[in-house]
Write a structure and sequence with these properties.
CATH topology: Growth Hormone, Chain: A
Distance between the termini: 33 Å
Helix content: over 70%
CATH architecture: Up-down Bundle
Number of domains: 1
Structural class: mainly alpha
CATH superfamily: MFS general substrate transporter like domains
Shape: globular
Mean pLDDT: 84
Strand content: under 5%
CATH class: Mainly Alpha
Number of helices: 16
Length: about 425
């Protein structure tokens, strides 16, 4: 890695190369997480599994993805970012490849739910927060926005291709492609991702030269780090406001739209490729929306940003059932409107967590907040599947999801309102 630092020299800070490597890691993980939505209809047709059964496996995946986050952040502090991520990517690739041989629902729950869900939880938003806080003193919002946008780019790159492969060659070919994509990222992490700027004799991007050197925290047991941080943070109201607002965020994105939109499109006579293309279109707009959100979170009050994000998302979800009945522009309007807002909530949420709990504790605190996000996603993934199975339509699920977002818009206005805790926003 020192050779890489010498190659780029003074042209730009190595932190941006670290961001590029993590972007690719998150890209592979995003494609892996999106794969079950492409597999839902083929599995239903081949094995006769109900959507509620498949949704259960997806909800376990989503829940473990979130619950792994704080322990992953703690493991990165104790064992290092690189070994933790390499272990997760290897597990992810092996689990996805193994799933090509599954024939029973319990196998999908164990492989996609437990094995893949836990592995993708390491290559997640807590990884982004850890890397950004280590490598950047300024422009953290922009860097976090770029990394968060990788989830949208993962949909953009993978979903239409995977849907087309599923239609032509079957779902087994899909999982093998995804396993290979995860494996390809392994050498990049091994050779191009240092632990800290100090390893390359650098300072974090934007840090003054006269700033005191960063003190590496004493190595502790990851469980002690994770639960100790939770014990301190959970005594504050701001932690629970962040937790429950992100619960709503997860329910209205990964859990509902990310899991069920392709199947929902099928209810209205659209093919899987058309549904996946709609998600990919949303991914294009989210790539811009989330990057812009990161830039804005360096300049605008994060509570105000979140208020608008949750409020507009709620309105778009309430509009969704009507979009299918509007010729030509109904769904495109939803794709643009919702896509710009898909995960734009992440950069300002990370900013609020960092401002409130400090740079060192923020990645682990944010890991617990992401656990709330994924518990909300699991709740919505399974709940929407049950509602669809019992009512034959997703309309009620759309209305509930939209209503929750409007509640979230009110909750976020109360975060970090204690004047003694507020920190000035940088110019």
């Amino acid at each position: 890695m020192n050779w890489a630092a010498r190659m780029i020299g003074g042209r730009f800070h190595y932190g941006w190369l670290a961001v590029a490597v993590v972007f690719l890691v998150l890209l592979a993980a995003a494609g892996t997480r999106a794969t079950p939505s492409v597999m839902m209809v083929p599995l239903e047709h081949q094995f006769g599994w109900s959507r509620a059964t498949i949704s259960l496996a997806i909800s376990v995946n989503i829940a473990l993805y979130g619950l792994t986050g704080p322990f992953a952040a703690a493991a990165m502090q104790r064992f290092g970012v690189r070994p933790t991520v390499l272990t997760a990517l290897s597990t992810m690739a092996a689990g996805v490849a193994l799933s090509s041989m599954m024939t029973h629902p319990w196998q999908m729950i164990m492989i996609w739910g437990v094995m893949v869900g836990g592995a993708t939880g390491v290559a997640a938003l807590t990884l982004s927060a850890t890397v950004v806080n280590r490598w950047f003193s300024t422009h953290r919002g922009l860097a976090m926005g770029i990394l968060t946008a990788s989830s949208a780019t993962g949909q953009l790159v993978f979903l239409p291709l995977l849907a087309a492969v599923a239609e032509k060659f079957g779902w087994q070919a899909v999982v093998l492609i995804v396993a290979c994509a995860a494996a390809v990222v392994l050498p990049l992490v091994a050779f191009l991702l240092p632990e800290r700027p100090l390893d390359l004799m650098l300072r974090p991007f934007g840090e003054p030269h006269d700033a005191p050197p960063v003190q590496v925290a004493a190595q502790q047991n990851p469980l002690a780090i994770a639960f100790g941080t939770l014990a301190k943070a959970s005594r504050t109201r701001d932690f629970w406001l962040l937790f429950f607002s992100f619960f709503i965020c997860g329910a209205s994105t990964n859990g509902y739209i990310g899991t069920h939109l392709i199947a929902m499109c099928g209810d209205y006579g659209m093919s899987e490729v058309q549904g996946a293309s709609l998600l990919a279109t949303m991914g294009i707009f989210d790539l811009f929306g989330t990057t812009l959100s990161g830039w804005l979170s360096d300049r605008v009050n994060s509570r105000v940003l979140l208020f608008w994000y949750y409020g507009l998302r709620g309105l778009s979800l309430i509009y969704l059932p009507h979009a299918f009945g509007i010729d030509f522009y109904g769904l495109p309007v939803f794709a643009v409107f919702y896509g710009l807002d898909w995960i734009a909530t992440v950069p300002p949420t990370v900013r609020l967590a960092t401002d409130r709990f400090g740079k060192d504790a923020a990645p682990v605190v944010f890991g617990w907040v992401v656990a709330g996000h994924q518990l909300g996603a699991a709740f919505a993934a399974f709940g929407a599947g049950l509602l669809r199975s019992s009512l034959g339509t997703y309309t009620v699920a759309s209305m509930i999801s939209g209503g929750l977002c409007l509640v979230g818009a009110v909750l976020v206005l109360r975060i970090n309102r204690d004047p003694s805790l507020l920190k000035a926003q940088p110019a």
